[in-house]
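haha ok so turns out i had the wrong file open the whole time. this is the CORRECT one, sorry everyone. sequence first:
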Amino acid sequence: MTSKVVAILMTFTDGGLHTLTEVARLANLPTSTVHRLIGELAAWGVLERTDDARYRVGAPLREICAHPSRIPNLQERARRALEDLSAATRTDVRLGVLMDGRVAYIEKLPGNRPVSSFSEAATLPAHATAMGKALLAFSPSNTLDLIAARGLKAYTPHTLVTMDGLRRALSMARLARVAISRWELTIGHASMAVPVFGGGGTLAAALEVKVRDLRQDVRLLHPVLMVAARSMSRELAAVQAMPSPLIGGQWSHPLASAPSA
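then structure:
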């Protein structure tokens, strides 16, 4: 029975949607068997049934695969990147990943203080931060749907609180490959962020730096931030090519099957 359940779950390693018939064919199991087992998996929330009678990975599995601590070498590689970036820019730097529509992050402050660790208690709103917008700009459309469903909370008078405004900002971020947040989360604080990609152009994370003067610092810090992001992207692409203990034997990142997360 366990082998049949595993065979069914293995058909979803690509993060896609499948009908019951497709699952039976891919898992090489009788349709009647798949109908019974997939019903139980859906009842437990491990799989989700869409309105058009297709199935996808459910929230519990997405959470397991998306948690930053389960991404091979991400935190260690990010720690080195943040230390170098902080030394070069002499300002606060962060690396963020999407988790359930919010941004989980680690950060390095100037000086000798160590890089922090990912924590479920330390998350920020995606729509009000530069790294959040850099992540949303390159995320699947259903990720933005999750943000819209929860509403855009105003943290300051400068926070984007309409979906039209947010979509315009994300379009600009996609075009320029850089996202900006000016006083949107905290008055007086501005930041800039760029996406980090893994193999095949899949989104992995976003790197963010604190910006004191948008007019001058963006021009000076953007090249440094881009170099750091590209270097980390190459490293993560190399990790993706290596075997992983995760589902399907493939490297996973927070947005691989995002509702995201």
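The chain has two domains: 2-57, 68-249.
again sry for the mixup
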